[in-house]
Design brief:
- Chain B: Belongs to the HesB/IscA family.
- Chain B: This is Iron-sulfur cluster assembly 2 homolog, mitochondrial.
- The complex is a heterodimer of chains A (325) and B (139).
- With 325 residues, chain A is α+β, with helices and mostly antiparallel strands.
- Chain A folds into two domains: 214 residues, Gyrase A, domain 2 (2-Layer Sandwich), CATH 3.30.1360.120; 73 residues, Aminomethyltransferase beta-barrel domains (Elongation Factor Tu (Ef-tu), domain 3).
- Chain A is built from eight helices and 16 strands.
- In chain A, a hairpin with a 4-residue loop joins β4 and β5.
- Chain A is globular, with a radius of gyration of 20 Å.
- With 139 residues, chain B is an alpha+beta fold.
- Chain B has a single domain, classed as HesB-like domain (Hypothetical Protein Aq_1857, Chain: A).
- In chain B, the strands form two sheets. Chain B has a six-stranded mixed sheet.
- Chain B is globular and about 35 Å long.
- The chains are: A alpha+beta (325), B alpha+beta (139).
- At the A-B interface, loops of A face β2 of B.
């Protein structure tokens, strides 16, 4: 548990060193980047690839230009996995790259193969060949590549999540562009926490969660006019007839947490001691919780762990949510 | 008023009867590896067979529950196909689809909304979506 603060410190030292060695003008254009080691890629190609994926993902495959956010659901409408989908082409054919949590890449491969039947689709794990990088900038123009990466795109969820870049696994992104500075993966996680976005199987619980509670509609991850896909029925019905009372929201702890495991999944209570949700992710001072919106914005919230430590936190509606909600 | 109700009663029965009929068909319990053809299916196939060959049943991916049935008439028989026959009517199922529908009955239902072939009593199908097009598979 001492590792995290140490990495943080190391990071700050690195940045300061960088500042010392560069003059001010280059510093302003400096872009932070990190390899997303917890993310993995599957390559999906073949003449039926688009039709095949269209039947499995929540988003419309035809809007994947060149990237989209989506989820894979089970027939009952619960989230199996959250994914990012990239469309790319090499010399002779178009193919899709499916970005997912590295812990479930085999599970997703099997999921796809289960529904493949006779479709002319090739599903290959390219985790060993390709890597996903993340870059964060103030101005997208400042990220100029001297060598073209395999693919670069804005994060399809939110602009504030920066850029996603795919390059061969054995290369470093700094070989591709100037003014890049390698930072720790944790920077990316912190950014996600501050925005209130969950990603990967430890935060998006397989088989339990509902896609709209994970803000799939706000993050442009679902289309309601695309036709049938696996798990469509519940999702469409909830959207058209129901109200979504619980959603993922960013939370801030009054004191930073150093024992993440003890808090993850704990119940969040509001100032009237009413159960208003669960903590889904956290990193230091920031976290994301799945909360009943009406109950959790009125005052301070609290979380208690199994060993009776209690911490105080506050929740807020993120700025990127639609104004009328 | 009452007269009117009584008058239309036989009419209703005539429409309900074909709907209920499929419930009485039972798959052959000894043969869970095969496909059974109902009498309705045989009758309908004989009517249309002259021009178009055999009925092919295929399971494809798609729909809200992941899998759906497709029916078409096919003159060709491929290497991995199996043919099921009853009273001269023939149904072709390829091996991959057969794994997902073996033990079921192919029926022809005449309903008010549409008359079509159906796969009934599939032991591997778990639940369907409300539009009835697709189904999911028991793991």
């Amino acid at each position: 548990m001492q590792i995290l603060p140490r990495i943080f410190r190391q990071n700050i030292i690195n940045k300061n060193l960088y500042r010392l060695y560069t003059n001010k003008s280059t510093l302003q254009a400096c872009i932070e980047c990190a390899p997303l080691l917890e993310r993995s890629l599957l390559r999906i190609s073949g003449p039926d690839a688009a039709t095949f994926l269209q039947g499995l993902i929540t988003n419309d495959i035809n809007t994947t230009e060149p990237a989209s956010y989506a989820m894979l659901l089970n027939p009952k409408g619960r989230i199996l996995y959250d994914i990012l989908l990239y469309k790319n082409r090499n010399d002779d054919e178009e193919y899709y790259l499916l970005e997912c949590d590295v812990r479930v890449n085999t599970a997703i491969e099997n999921h796809c193969k289960f529904y493949k039947l006779r479709s002319k689709v090739d599903i290959v794990n390219v985790d060993q060949e390709l890597a996903v990088w993340w870059a964060k900038y103030n101005d997208r123009e400042s990220l100029a590549f001297k060598n073209e990466p395999i693919l670069r795109t804005k994060d399809p969820r939110l602009q504030k999540l920066g850029e996603r870049i795919i390059i061969p696994r054995h290369k470093n992104l700094s070989e591709y562009a100037q003014n890049l500075i390698n930072v720790n993966y944790q920077e990316y996680v912190d950014d996600r926490m501050k925005l209130g976005i969950c990603e990967g199987v430890s935060e998006v619980i397989t088989g339990e969660s509902l896609p709209l509670e994970y803000n799939l509609d706000y993050l442009d991850g679902v289309k309601f006019d695309k036709g049938c896909y696996l798990g469509q029925e519940l999702t469409a019905r909830t959207y058209h007839t129901g109200v979504i009372r619980k959603r993922l929201m960013p939370v801030i702890f009054l004191n930073p947490i150093d024992d993440n495991a003890a808090f993850l999944g704990s119940t969040v209570l509001n100032d009237k001691n009413k159960n208003c949700g669960k903590l889904r992710a956290l990193s230091g001072k920031y976290g994301v919780a799945l909360l009943r919106i009406a109950d959790s914005l009125s005052g301070l919230l609290s979380v208690k762990t199994t060993n009776n430590t209690e911490v105080t936190l506050t929740a807020s509606k993120p700025l990127w949510w639609p104004q009328n909600n | 008023m009452l007269r009117k109700v009584i008058q239309i009663k036989p009419e209703i029965f005539r429409q309900i009867k074909p709907l209920c009929r499929h419930l009485t068909i039972q798959a052959d319990p000894k043969n869970t590896e095969a496909i059974t053809l109902s009498d309705g299916c045989v009758k309908r196939l004989k009517e249309i067979r002259e021009e178009n060959g055999r009925l092919r049943v295929v399971v494809t991916n798609g729909g809200c529950s992941g899998f759906q049935y497709l029916f078409n008439l096919d003159k060709n028989v491929n290497e991995d196909d199996r043919i099921f026959e009853k009273d001269g009517a023939q149904v072709i199922v390829d091996q991959m689809s057969l794994d997902l529908i073996k033990g079921s009955i192919i029926d022809f239902r005449e309903e008010m909304i549409r008359s079509s072939f159906h796969v009934v009593g599939n032991p591997r199908a778990e639940m369907g979506c409300s539009c009835g097009v697709s189904f999911s598979i028991k793991e």
